[in-house]
Specification:
This protein is of the alpha+beta class. It has 3 helices and 3 strands, in the order βαβαβα. The chain has a 3-stranded antiparallel beta sheet with strand order 1-3-2. It is globular and about 35 Å long.
Length: 85
């Protein structure tokens, strides 16, 4: 419903990894990527930042991006820890 648009990478060398909507999963993904030394960017969609603060979640979601060379490793880690494809 809210994920109709394709995520747009904030910088050319970034590749889309996943979109999540709740603060807990956002924190888990950040921790997993940091722990494994995978640089990432996250970008809220629409008024997502505001809704994250006020409601603790956003139906618009937060997109995660990594460098292309880290994409496969990041996907495997998220699949193992969170079962995110």
């Amino acid at each position: 419903m809210f994920h109709e648009k394709e995520p747009v990478a904030p910088i050319p060398e970034a590749t889309f990894l996943t979109t999540v909507t709740d603060n807990i999963t956002i924190g888990l993904i950040e921790g997993i990527l940091k722990e494994n030394h995978i640089p990432f960017l996250k970008q809220s969609r629409g008024s997502g930042d505001y809704l994250q603060i006020v409601c603790g979640a956003s139906p618009f979601g937060t997109d995660f991006f990594v460098r292309h060379e880290h994409l496969q490793q990041a996907k495997e880690l998220l699949n193992v820890y969170l079962n995110i494809q």
